Amino acid sequence: MIAFLIKRLVQAIIVMFIISLVSFSIQDNLGDPLRELVGQSVSEEERQVLREKMGLNDPFLVQYGRFAVKALHGDLGTSYFFKEPALQVILHKLPATIELVFGATLIIVLLSVPLGVYSAIKPNSLFSRAVMGFSIVGISVPVFLTAIGLIYFFSIYLGWMPSFGRGETEPVLGPWETGFLTVDGLQHLILPCISLASIMLPLFIRLIRAEMMEVLQSEYVKFAWAKGLAPRRIYFLHALKNTMLPVITVGGVQIGTMVAYTILTETVFQWPGMGFLFLEAVNRVDTPLIVAYLIVVGAIFVVTNTLVDLIYGLVNPTVKLTGKK
Amino acid sequence: MALLEVNNLEVRFGLRSGEVSALRDINFTLERGERLGIVGESGAGKSVLGFSILNLLSRPGYIAGGEILFEGRNLAAMSARELRSIRGNRISMIFQDPMMTLNPVLTIGQQMVECLRAHRKISQQDAKRIALQKLKQVYIPSPEKRFDQYPHELSGGMRQRIVIAIGLLMDPDIIIADEPTTALDVTIQAEIMDLMLELCERNNVALILITHDLGVVSQVTKQAMVMYAGRIIEQGPTREIINDAQHPYTQGLMNALPQMAIPGQRLNQIRGSMPPLQKIPAGCAFNPRCEYVMEVCRSQLPEFTSSGGCRVACHLVAKMKLEEAAAQRVEEAN
């Protein structure tokens, strides 16, 4: 277990190094930071002096080295627009995004397992066919369209749900304010979570169904039937446990991807999270913020994937986390 | 009343290309403690027969007709709940490949205890005690340790012992063993077979042994049936079938045994291969491969002819019997 964690830590450091290198190199190719900083009224000489002072004329690797040393101390630069440390700006928005992803994940897990399992057990039933049909539609429709459709129907036509923002939030810890504790906050969560889940849910239903159908054909499931076990035990213990192994692996990666998908959802719903912030940062060419965002998202990926590997090791007895006995 | 009596069993597969018969006119009986061998090439329907006895056919296969009487109760017409109380309890099954039979994510103990608790109201502790006792019976060293291990931590032979132990958990009346040693190393095949026979003998369990190995059948079983393309073509006492095979197909199988070959010569084989279910030829299914094929074989399904203690479905055997009888009558008349 400890050996596994150390191994993963080394991997994580390498991955984070590459991510930081790539995201930092964007800085050189994304407009002129000085223009964003000082505006029109500063003369060319003054600009050159400022440029020299900020080290923008140094070779790339020197600049990167300076950035990396600072980054290791938790300083990812200062946002041009907010005039605050970029990391702090992002961490301030992180809870909103995490809650959105959490809500969507909850929807996906609660719906995909029963629907996937059912349509695998009864593949020819009308309900299963309907689920399969809808899932194709769900995969095909882009998130922003789903989101706009949801807003139109539930917020404008029916007037049941709010169409933008987080609503009332309660402070929990430091910058973390949650929408899960107030009715208003929950109402604001529903539509964004549904639209964020709309792409992954059909994918997971289909994945679980396909895996489960394969597992149900296996010898050990036939043997379980021959032992005279109850169907419930065969489906939900013997088959489901084996079905979930590949699903966990894929699922972990997808949760990371979902953080990226939040950019679309957050934009449509004016959700004050990281994704929305990122899009604004791109519009304002707020390079330090963009770089910081990419690094934070990279870190989230690394953490979720490590967690998924840990969970996989717990579920699958043939995997030894220590590597050696 | 026989322990198991199968009458006119027919199994069909509803395929997209149409219905096909996988088994037809299957008739046999099995007495308590008896051993029956089912022999044939791959695709003859041996395994389908094994599964249909427990009414365990998976789609698209289904029992289309006939009865399977276990102690007089028809398994083919039983409710799912009643069937469950028989499967793994009164009739259990041992599969071919022990690497695939055990669930990889559950411990040996879990897979044994669940079977006991599905059929009997007993506590976890009692179930564990019985399971450990069965593991000892199949000569598993340090059963306590194995109980908490997962299948991948054990060797193939060890796993098949465990599968046998699971088969014997409820002291069943019948064990259906579908090629129980085929997937094992040659060195432990005999060991596992001996173990299975010993346990069947000791507990007076009837054994249906499905195999393509005539050698094993001749050593182990008293009764045997040979299957071809979903039908029984010869059935009777094993010794008669082995020593005096009547059906050209059975003869072919016997000749194909390496023991029958003359050293230095090529092994004998039956030319051609078994037809797929959709393309079973008219008349006797074996006619395209038969050395002694006659005109009638191509059009008419052969009836069973008695020959000694055996029943043989072959036009040639029927003709020979007729001629024999005629010759005998002539002799008597003279």
Q: For this structure, what is the CATH class of the largest domain in chain B?
A: Alpha Beta
> Could you give the distance between the termini of chain A?
11 Å
Computed CA radius of gyration of chain B, to the nearest angstrom: 22 Å
Poorly predicted parts of chain B: none
Residues in β-strands, percent of chain B: 15-25%
Briefly note the CATH topology name of chain A: MetI-like fold
Q: What number of structural domains do the residues of chain A give?
A: 1
Strand segment tally of chain B: 12
What is the assigned CATH homologous superfamily of chain A? MetI-like
CATH homologous superfamily identity of the largest domain in chain B: P-loop containing nucleotide triphosphate hydrolases
Helix % of chain A is over 70%
Order of helices and strands of chain B: EEEHEEHEHHHHHEHEHEEHHEEH
- Please summarize the sheet with the most strands of chain A: 2 strands, antiparallel
| Name of the level-1 CATH class of chain A | Mainly Alpha
What's the number of extended β-strand segments of chain A?
2
Pfam families (chain B): ABC_tran, oligo_HPY
Subcellular location (chain B): Cell inner membrane
Catalytic activity (chain B): a dipeptide(out) + ATP + H2O = a dipeptide(in) + ADP + phosphate + H(+)
Membrane topology (chain B): Peripheral membrane protein
